[in-house]
Here is the input.
Amino acid sequence: MESYEKLLENNKAWAAEMVSKDPQFFTRLVDVQHPEFLWIGCSDSRVPANEITGTLPGQIFVHRNIANMVVNTDVNMLSVLEYAVNVLKVKHVIVCGHYGCGGVKAAMGNQSIGIIDTWLRNIKVVYRLHQGELNPMASADARFDRLVELNVIEQVRNLSKTAIIQKAWAQRGGPHLHGWAYRLSDGVVKPLAELSAGAEMDPIDRYDNLS
Ligand code: CO
Here is the structure.
């Protein structure tokens, strides 16, 4: 059997198992979704949103890209964010990075690797913002781990800078923003940052006409 055929076999078995445990499981989800969470994570195959959070289909709206970035010109991310916040009315937006992230590692290096350079440049900006903390660190591994964390925290800040989030905060007091880092070596998530409506932000990033 080809490897992709195995996936289809697995799918049949999984669907049958879900129905045997809960006959209404799929029929309940056919017409509507009410996820409480938007997940913005890395595309890395080792960090699947549902598995590591013990959640089922219907519970998390997901956007993934290389290095879990919130880039203010990314129409894909902004479309997902707007739909999740304004239509699905999610209560929580989670940016989840991970230690050992190849995107962050590449951004710390000096090799051009193609069009992805443009994407990773956003992480180099995070490095520059925090070079006072990062450069003195003795070990390259510690610096790598810390840049993973700082990158997550900056992406949470980037969410708070969007008119989408600021308008929702003004109108309904949510969603709550979270920054997490997942450790590949033991599967555990470390919470790093939280921002909610009314959070302090740089005045230059605040819009005053969105209520
Ligand atoms: Co990654």
